[in-house]
Write a structure and sequence with these properties.
The chain is mainly alpha-helical. The chain is about 45% helix and about 10% strand. The strands form five sheets. Strands 3-4-7 form a three-stranded antiparallel sheet. The longest helix is centred in the N-terminal third of the chain and has 16 residues.
Length: about 475
C-alpha cells in the first residue's frame, strides 16, 4: 500500500454533528492504523464561507474528541491552501486544461430556461435532467449569448461508457454514464462546483483513500470521469452507512438540533470516550459496561464489507454508555470536569480551599453512579452545598397524601422523643424500623418519604 493520506471535510457552517464526528473518527483511525496522515480541509467554495469563529468551533470539537491532523488551515502543509475559497486560481488552471482538451463546453442557459426544461420533462413523465443542449453551440451562437450579457457555466462532456470501481465496503460497483448528463464543473460566478473542487483537491493533495458516507456514492462516476480527464490517480473509495436521526431522516438533510451536536454533548458533560465507543461500535457491544480507549480502537480498526445503508443515532443508548464511562473514569478527573457545573450553579466558589476540594471529591464519588452526564450532577449535588432544598410541586402533592402525612408525623415524633438518635449514631435501618412500628407502612415507602423531604428528589444515592 502506498502512503495513506485521508481527509476530513467538516461543514463550512462550523457545526460538527455526530455523523460528521463518526466520519472524522473513521479517517483518523484509518490513518493511525496505517501510519498515514490525516488532512483537515474546508470545502467552502459555495455560498457558505467558514468564519474564523466557526473554524475555531469545529477544531475545538475535534480536539475534544482527541482527533489530531497533520495538515490543515491552522497547520499548513505542502499542498495548501486547505480552504477551497482560497484555491480559485488552482481550479481556473484545471478548467483551462479541460477547455484546451475540449472536454468541457460553455452553457448559457438561464435558471429560468432550465426550470422550464425540467417542468416540461416532469409534465411528460420523464426523469428530470439537463439535455446537453449547449454541447454543440456554434461560435456565432456563443457570441450572441455573450452579447446578451449571459455568463456561462462550464459543463463536462459525459460520453457513453461503463464505470467500474471497487468500494472498500460495498464491493464492485458499476455505473452506466447513459444515466448521466453533462454536469457543471465551473459556475457562472467562477466558483467551482463541489464535484470539480473535491476532485482537484483530492488529486493535488495526494489523497489515497476517501472514506465518507453513502450519500456521496451517486457522485463517484463524475469524480472518476474527472480524475481520468485530468490525468490523476483515482483514490480508493469506502462508503459508510449514513446516520439517521430519531425521526428516521439522514442527519445531513436535517435542520440539526442540539441532541446531534458535538458542542452540545461536550457542554452537557458527555465524555469523549463515550462518543468514541458509541460511534465506533454500532451494532456491536455498544451497551456493554466495558468501554474502550481510542488507542484500543486504532489497533483493531478495519474497514469491512457492509450491506447496511444506514445506522440510527440513539441518544438514550449514548447516555447509557456515558454513564458507564463516568463510573469507570478516574475520580479526580471527573471531579475536575464537574467543577464548572457546580460553579455555574453557585454551589461552590471560584477559590477552593484544599478541604473544600476534598469534600467535593467525596460528593462526586457518592453521586456519579446516578447520572448519565456530568451536567446532571447538579440535580443531586444541591443537598451537599445548600442548607435548603425546595420541593417540586409533584413531590409536595405526594407528601400531602394521608399515608405520607402519617409517616412524616411519625418521623417527627421519633425525632422529638429520642433526641439522642444523632448523638448515639443509631443505624438508619433501626431508625426506619421505629417508623414502621408507628405507621405499619412499608419500609421502602418510609425511605422514599425521607428522600423526598431531605433531598427534594425522587431518586438518588443511597440514603
Amino acid at each position: 500500500m502506498s502512503k495513506v493520506r485521508v481527509r476530513f471535510t467538516p461543514s463550512p457552517v462550523g457545526y460538527l454533528h455526530v455523523s460528521n464526528a463518526r466520519i472524522a473518527l473513521i479517517n483518523y483511525l484509518f490513518a493511525r492504523k496505517h501510519k498515514g496522515e490525516l488532512l483537515l480541509r474546508i470545502e467552502d467554495c459555495g455560498k457558505d464561507r467558514m468564519t474564523d469563529e466557526a473554524f475555531e468551533q469545529v477544531t475545538k470539537d475535534l480536539r475534544w474528541l482527541k482527533i489530531e491532523w497533520e495538515e490543515g488551515p491552522n497547520k499548513g502543509g505542502p499542498y495548501g491552501p486547505y480552504r477551497q475559497s482560497l484555491r480559485g486560481k488552482i481550479y481556473t488552471e484545471r478548467l483551462n486544461y479541460l477547455i484546451e482538451k475540449k472536454l468541457v463546453y460553455p452553457c448559457y442557459a438561464t435558471q429560468k430556461e432550465l426550470e422550464q426544461l425540467y417542468a416540461d420533462q416532469r409534465q411528460r413523465g420523464e426523469k428530470v435532467h439537463y439535455d446537453n443542449r449547449a454541447r454543440n453551440l456554434s461560435e456565432a451562437e456563443k457570441l450572441e449569448y455573450e452579447n446578451q450579457g449571459r455568463k456561462p457555466v462550464w459543463r463536462f462532456k459525459v460520453e457513453p461508457q461503463k464505470i467500474v470501481f471497487h468500494d472498500m465496503l460495498l464491493g464492485m460497483m458499476t455505473f452506466d454514464t447513459f444515466e448521466m448528463n453533462d454536469f457543471v464543473v465551473m459556475n457562472a460566478d467562477h466558483t467551482p462546483s463541489p464535484i470539480f473542487a473535491i476532485t482537484v483537491d483530492d488529486a493535488q493533495m495526494k489523497i489515497s483513500h476517501v472514506l465518507w458516507e453513502q450519500n456521496h456514492l451517486q457522485h463517484i462516476p463524475a469524480h472518476i470521469l474527472l480524475f481520468n480527464a485530468l490525468g490523476y490517480h483515482i483514490p480508493q473509495y469506502g462508503h459508510f452507512e449514513m446516520m439517521y436521526g430519531v425521526d428516521s431522516q439522514p442527519l445531513y438533510k436535517q435542520d440539526l438540533c442540539d441532541i446531534y451536536s458535538c458542542s452540545h454533548l461536550r457542554r452537557n458533560g458527555f465524555l469523549p470516550e463515550s462518543i468514541h465507543n458509541y460511534l465506533l461500535l454500532f451494532g456491536k457491544d455498544t451497551l456493554s459496561s466495558t468501554t474502550h480507549k481510542l488507542d484500543d480502537f486504532i489497533e483493531g480498526f478495519t474497514v469491512s464489507p457492509s450491506t447496511k445503508t444506514y445506522v440510527t443515532f440513539d441518544p438514550e443508548a449514548l447516555k447509557k454508555i456515558n454513564r458507564c464511562c463516568i463510573q469507570s473514569a478516574d475520580l479526580i478527573r471527573i471531579a475536575d470536569l464537574t467543577l464548572p457545573y457546580l460553579k455555574e450553579n453557585k454551589m461552590i466558589s471560584s477559590n477552593l480551599a484544599q478541604g473544600d476540594y476534598e469534600y467535593i471529591i467525596k460528593v462526586i464519588d457518592l453521586i456519579r453512579n446516578q447520572v448519565d452526564s456530568l451536567a446532571e450532577i447538579n440535580d443531586y449535588a444541591g443537598i451537599f452545598f445548600f442548607d435548603y432544598v425546595a420541593l417540586p410541586n409533584a413531590l409536595t402533592q405526594k407528601l400531602s397524601e394521608s399515608l405520607n402525612q402519617n409517616i412524616l408525623r411519625a418521623i417527627d415524633k421519633v425525632l422529638d422523643e429520642e433526641k439522642d438518635l444523632v448523638e448515639v449514631n443509631v443505624p438508619f435501618d433501626e431508625f426506619c424500623s421505629r417508623i414502621v412500628e408507628l405507621t405499619q407502612a412499608d419500609q421502602g415507602m418510609i425511605q422514599s418519604v425521607l428522600r423526598w423531604v431531605l433531598t427534594g428528589l425522587e431518586h438518588g444515592p443511597e440514603l
